[in-house]
């Protein structure tokens, strides 16, 4: 997992820029072992939010905007009615980059079902490199730039990658700390979140 460094103090090795592949693979293996445990924890976290959905659930407000790569403003309210995987990442975080194919596949297979992935870059002043990764990895989901944007104060995560699972009104259903191990695990988290949303809608 990549802890957020001070600006200008991040590491660099990653597969998209063709650096030190073996070292990254070793780190990924260790990280994957942790993620299996965290996956169980994450499901508990998501389930624990079920009781609070009808109460004062934390939401990311519509005026908490971010910037897109083409310079426009975007917000969660643009995706009202959708289940959202809000994925926080950085370009110098190998696990973040290794998670991209999983999120890409999820977006391709489920984006027509009231679901979307949104990648949120926490990088400072590295827009060109973020854009390079989006093109190189053929990212199919929206990518936002959060640094120095209103949405940033709502994204308090200790490290990257970090996934917020948001409901149809921007409410935070739960979160997934760290890299999702496999595509099937990502689908499981998505389906569990759908159950929470469906259950709440039936109670209204």
Provide structural commentary.
Residues 54-195 form the Thioredoxin domain. InterPro entries: Redoxin, Thioredoxin-like_sf, Thioredoxin_domain, Thioredoxin_ResA/DsbE_sf. This protein has a seven-stranded mixed β-sheet. The protein has four helices and nine strands. Strand 4, helix 2 and strand 5 (115-121) form a beta-alpha-beta unit. The termini are far apart. Helix 1 packs parallel to helix 4. The chain is 37% helix and 18% strand. It has a domain at 65-202: Glutaredoxin. The chain has helices at residues 21-48, 94-110, 127-136, 183-203; strands spanning 2-3, 66-68, 73-74, 83-89, 115-121, 143-145, 159-160, 162-166, 172-177. With 204 residues, the chain is an alpha+beta fold.
Unreliable spans:
5-45, 47-56
At CATH level 2, the architecture of the domain at 65-202 is: 3-Layer(aba) Sandwich
The multimeric state of the shown protein is: single chain
List the total number of helices: 4
Tally of strands: 9
